[in-house]
Specification:
The chain is α+β, with helices and mostly antiparallel strands. 15% of the residues lie in helices and 35% in strands.
Length: 127
């Protein structure tokens, strides 16, 4: 019988083996975003307004009702795949799961999904 510590180590190895970005050979219709805390969002790529890279460590995706802020390392290497809508899913990992920096692969340390404030409807004053 394995101990709790061994079981956790096994789960960590499986989760670490999963890539933070899933890139397909053909364009994806949606982007699935998963946080390590268990939240999941699905955004249609057709609604992407723009993507902004802040250096190599920050990516901001703007959709009509949400802004997705992705932080990590080596994110700029994703420009061609994001521009072609080939990224089908992203996920972040807690700090304990970070691979060594020399792997050269992009890695997500944090994802924030923020709802945009929707402007109130403007009405004509009643007379």
């Amino acid at each position: 019988m394995s101990t709790l510590r061994e079981e956790l180590a096994e789960r960590r190895a499986v989760q670490t083996a999963e890539a933070p970005f899933v890139v397909a050979s053909v364009p994806a219709s949606t982007l699935v975003i998963s946080s390590w805390e268990g939240d999941t969002w699905v955004f249609p790529w057709a609604q992407l307004a723009n993507a902004k890279f802040g250096g190599n460590t920050r990516l901001e995706l703007s959709f009509p009702n949400h802004v997705v802020v992705i932080q990590g390392r080596k994110l700029r290497s994703l420009v061609p795949d994001l521009a072609a809508f080939r990224v089908s899913s992203v996920r972040d990992f807690p700090p304990d799961y970070r691979p060594p920096a020399e792997t050269g692969q992009p890695f997500i340390t944090r994802i924030d999904v923020r709802a945009r404030a929707i402007a109130p409807e403007i009405r004509e004053p009643s007379q």
